């Protein structure tokens, strides 16, 4: 059976300024979440009403891949679940991997500009 690598990103309803700073990511609210599954070869789009299905897909994945999703996206999703997403999902956070090699946290725009 093929491994299910799930690529994941989400966008929020509110900014850090709207919720009183970056320490309140759980108050930002998910406006949309998007995944791509290597097992199915399909994209899936989730809105706030289907966030439980998104959490279920992420927890079932063999590996969840994203950019800054451990420190940002999972913290936004924590408002919708009792699960500890950081410890229960096997993740590859490309920003953390790049940070180790570069010695600083690169912005996604800089990575995209250099690689696309």
Global outline: globular
**Main sheet specs:** 5 strands, mixed
What is the CA-atom radius of gyration, in angstroms? Answer: 14 Å
What are the secondary-structure elements, in order, as H or E? EEEHEHHEHH
Count every helix, treating DSSP H or I runs of 4 or more residues as helices: 5
Low-confidence stretches: none
Average residue pLDDT: 92
Structural class: alpha/beta
User: How much of the sequence is in beta strands?
Assistant: 15-25%
Distance between the termini: 32 Å
The amount of helix comes to: 25-40%
Strand order of the largest sheet: 3-2-1-4-5
How many β-strands, per DSSP?
5
What does the secondary structure layout of this molecule look like, with pairings?
Layout: E1 5-12, E2 30-37, E3 42-46, H1 51-60, E4 63-66, H2 69-77, H3 85-88, E5 91-93, H4 94-102, H5 108-115
Parallel strand pairs: 1-4, 4-5
Antiparallel strand pairs: 1-2, 2-3
Describe it.
The chain is α/β, with parallel strands linked by helices and 116 residues long. The chain contains five helices and five strands. A five-stranded mixed sheet has the order 3-2-1-4-5. The radius of gyration is 14 Å and the shape is globular.
List the defining traits of the structure above.
5 strands; alpha/beta; 5 helices; 116 residues; globular
């Amino acid at each position: 059976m093929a491994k299910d690598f799930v690529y994941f990103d989400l966008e929020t309803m509110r900014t850090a300024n709207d919720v009183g700073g970056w320490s309140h990511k759980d108050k930002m609210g998910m406006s949309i979440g998007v995944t791509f599954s290597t097992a199915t070869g399909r994209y899936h789009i989730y809105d706030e009403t289907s966030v439980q299905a998104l959490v279920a897909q992420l927890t079932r994945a063999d590996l969840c891949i994203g950019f800054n999703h451990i420190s940002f996206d999972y913290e936004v999703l924590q408002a919708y679940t009792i699960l500890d997403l950081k410890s229960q999902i096997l993740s590859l956070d490309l920003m953390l991997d790049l940070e180790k090699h570069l010695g600083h946290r690169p912005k996604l725009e800089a990575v995209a500009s250099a690689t696309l």
